[in-house]
Specification:
By secondary structure, this protein is an alpha/beta fold. Helices cover 40% and strands 23% of the residues. The protein contains 9 helices and 11 strands. Strands 3, 4, 5, 6, 9, 10 and 11 form a 7-stranded mixed beta sheet that branches. Strands 1-2 form a two-stranded antiparallel ribbon. The radius of gyration is 25 Å and the shape is globular.
Length: 293
């Protein structure tokens, strides 16, 4: 009876997803030649071509398409088995992959990581800063911090608190520019409105509909830095008040409710000591900063 070589499975999936041998090798951190030999060995084992080769890259043949669902199911079972084993870990050592948006990373989360490291020196944090939502069920990350209205993923979700949003500007901007502003904010500057947003509708609903929109930037941390440097005003999380001492809420504006902040983790990791220590520490410190704001 022919047996399947499980070491070839990640290479098959990587090529199917990446569309080329070199891209697949980068995707899984393997050598190009190793991936190539694995695909050849797998095709020899089955006696069929799994991929069409062309100048445009690799695409699945009908045999490769037939194999894909079974390979993905096997991948999920391997991920699940790994998580169950890791869930038995009772030691305060090891590495935790932590995924979060850059907006909160530099000035909110960095001090928390420093405090956690001082308390648990044998636990390492692999920080993954990305605006994308990394999948916990697909083993892309262990713990994730996410701002969302609700969570639909099949994960353990700890609901922390609802983020509050306010209109902020630097002290110098408020003291020097606001007194010169005209009716409905004429002469003032908004920072950071995404280009795809309908500007006219957004401005008409804003506290200063006659202000100009300039210096657009999607990254929340960069937007906060520009506000802190007296370049204009923007909607920012109230959580930032203590992180940026020069940034103040614009007088006369209201705080509005935003999305909820969640900590997400794989269900099989909630009993892992190092993960539980980190999630508990993160929860306490974020709630503390929320109350201070």
């Amino acid at each position: 009876m022919r047996t399947f070589d499980w070491e070839l499975l990640p290479h098959f999936l990587a090529v199917a997803r990446a569309g080329s041998l070199r891209s697949a090798a980068r995707l899984i951190g393997a050598n190009y030649g190793t991936v190539n030999r694995s695909i050849q060995a797998l095709e020899a084992s089955y006696g069929v071509r799994l991929f069409h080769r062309s100048r445009k890259g690799f695409s699945l043949t009908e045999y490769g398409q037939a194999l894909m669902p079974a390979a993905e199911e096997a991948e999920q079972k391997i991920f699940a088995a790994r998580k169950r084993v890791e869930g038995l870990d009772k030691s305060e050592t090891g590495t935790i992959r932590f995924s979060l948006t850059p907006t909160l990373a530099y000035d909110i989360i960095a001090p928390i990581i420093a405090g956690f490291s001082a308390k648990y020196p044998a636990i390492d944090i692999e920080l993954r800063l990305t605006p994308d939502v990394e999948s916990i069920t697909n083993d892309e990350t262990d713990v994730s911090l996410r701002a969302a209205t609700k969570i639909t993923d099949d994960v353990v979700a700890r609901k922390l608190f609802q983020l509050s949003l306010g209109v902020y500007a630097g002290k110098g901007y408020i003291n020097d520019t606001f007194p010169k502003a005209g009716s409905e904010g004429a002469g003032l500057t908004w920072i950071g409105l995404p280009q795809e947003t309908d500007r006219k509708i957004w401005l008409s609903r804003s506290p200063f509909p006659q202000a100009d929109i300039r210096h657009e930037v999607a990254d929340g941390h960069m937007r906060a830095r520009l506000v802190n440097l007296d370049l204009g005003m923007s909607h920012m999380p109230v959580l930032f008040e203590n992180a940026f001492p020069n940034m103040q809420r614009v007088p006369g504006t209201e705080v509005t409710p935003g999305p909820w902040l969640w900590i997400l983790l794989h269900s099989d990791l909630r009993k892992t000591t190092r993960v539980r220590r980190f999630v508990d520490f993160l929860s306490v410190e974020l709630r503390k900063r929320h109350k201070q704001g």
